[in-house]
Amino acid sequence: MIKTMNSCFAVFAIILAFITGCATVPPQKIETVFYPPPPDLPRLQFLTSFTGEKDVAPKKSAFQAFVTGSAESRRRLDKPYGVAIWGGKLYVADSNRGVFFFDLVGKKFDQLPGAHGLGQLSQPINIRIAPDGTKYVADPIRGQVVVFDKNDLYVDAFGRPGTWKPVDAVPYEDDLFVADMKNFEIVVLKRKDGTPVRRFGLAEDIAQKLSRPTNLAFDAEGHLFVSDIGVFKILKFDRDGHFLGAVGEMGRESGTFSRPKGIAIDREQRLYVVDAAFSNVQLFNKDGNVLFAFGTAGKRPGDLELPAQVIVDYDHIKYFQQYLDPKFDAENLVIVANQFGDKMINVYAMGKERGKHYPTDAELLEQLKERLKKAEKEKPAEKKGEPDKERR
Fold first, then answer.
1. Which residue, among 392, 367, 389, 370, has the nearest Cα to 380 in the 3D structure?
2. In Å, what is the CA distance from 357 to each residue of 41, 141, 352, 361, 363?
3. How are strands ordered across the β-sheet holding 345-353?
4. Quick check: 152 and 112 in contact, CB under 8 A?
5. Most CB atoms within 10 A, among 267, 273, 282, 383?
6. pLDDT-based confidence at 30, cuts 50/70/90?
7. Consecutive H or E run containing 22
8. Cβ distance 72 to 27 under 8 Å?
9. CA–CA distance from 15 to each of 26, 46, 356 (Å)?
10. What is the number of alpha carbons within 13 Å of residue 91 lying toward its C-beta?
11. How confident is the model at residue 25 (pLDDT cuts 50, 70, 90)?
12. What CA–CA distance (Å, rounded) separates 54 from 372?
């Protein structure tokens, strides 16, 4: 009897040590990364990333994992593209698995509850959220824009499958602007019922004509920006479809694009453009001049792996305050979705180091021009009769 009790106590002690030993492991410190790197003044800090349940839910003890088992591979994103944030939740359109959300308040990771039955999704590419919490999910395989309410429940589906290929759908006031990659145009619908209002993008002038529109964004003045991977530009229209200009062109230098995808515009009228080929995000001023870029291909904190979408947010900084450098004052969040890697949703903060004088965007542009001139002068002269190595 005594021997049996001793054995029980021994087992209990082992289990207790197993539980407490794992519960006291301190959280992993995230490396502090700024863009641009020192000695330049920092404008952007990488804060953290989200890939699956482990990034938001309380960490399981080793004993809990032992008892309940683990399905970690199924409790994470697979191939995200679109991203949005509203009401304390970070929503992700995963083109392989559906729409998921990271609940920053409830500390959980889950799938959109309304995405079944009539709300079943085939290949969600982008998700956009109106101020009232209504969500619009562009699904090119289903061939519709699927609508969910503020409680994430199914409401409606817009468009006739087979007639178009919606890849982004952005609400603006009472309308919904949809990028149709099949018909190379922007389709404007009524938000309340999906009734078609107008369409544009099929201009006779090649400079104003859409080729492969992928992503949309509005500025504070109500101008629509369209990322077009077919013409390697960001095209600007008014809401009636009148062409107002373009940003960028095809190339490999700063200010040019190879695979422009997600776009966003902040309150300072700065344009953020994701380039999947460069694995970076370039920032332009309101006149279309490049200011700086952040991100590079890799697996280190802040790096990007086939980035797809970018958004700017001013309402959720408080949820990421713990990651901010004490001397860095955040102005807004910048969130970038990566389609591959172990850090799929990267969260950054745009801001300034406290107590430092920062140049205006115009001054920053002049500094950039001077650097480019200096770099051009320092290029080694090509010897006569000796071809450039890259041309061989």
1. 389
2. 9, 50, 9, 13, 12
3. 33-35, 44-50, 345-353, 328-338, 307-313
4. yes
5. 273
6. low
7. helix 2-23
8. no
9. 20, 39, 53
10. 26
11. very low
12. 43
Residue 241 one-letter amino acid: G
Kindly tell me if the per-residue pLDDT of 384 is higher than 80: no
Asked if 213 contacts 231 with a C-beta cutoff of 8 angstroms, the reply is: no
Q: How confident is the model at residue 26 (pLDDT cuts 50, 70, 90)?
A: very low
Query: pTM (2 decimals)?
Result: 0.86
- Dump pLDDT digits (tens) for 288-313: 999 999 999 999 999 999 999 999 99
pLDDT in tens, 46-77: 999 999 999 998 766 555 555 555 555 558 99
What's the rounded Cα separation, in Å, for the pair 7 and 345?
48
Task: Say if CB 112 and CB 370 are below 8 A apart.
Answer: no
Rounded Cα–Cα distance for residues 36 and 298 (Å): 16
Top-confidence residue, 27 or 102:
102
DSSP E strands, 97-195 = 98-103, 108-111, 126-129, 135-139, 144-148, 154-158, 166-172, 175-180, 185-190
First to last CA, the chain: 86
**How far is C-alpha 266 from the chain's CA centre?**
14
Residues 237/198, Cβ–Cβ less than 8 Å: no
Distance CA 390, CA 392 (A): 6
pLDDT, mean over the chain: 88
Q: What is the pLDDT of residues 149-158, one digit of tens each?
A: 999 999 999 9
Largest pairwise CA distance in the chain = 97
3-state helix, strand, coil in the chain (%, to 5): 15, 40, 45
Q: Hey, how many other C-beta atoms are within 10 angstroms of the C-beta on 376?
A: 8
CB 260 within 8 A of CB 227: yes
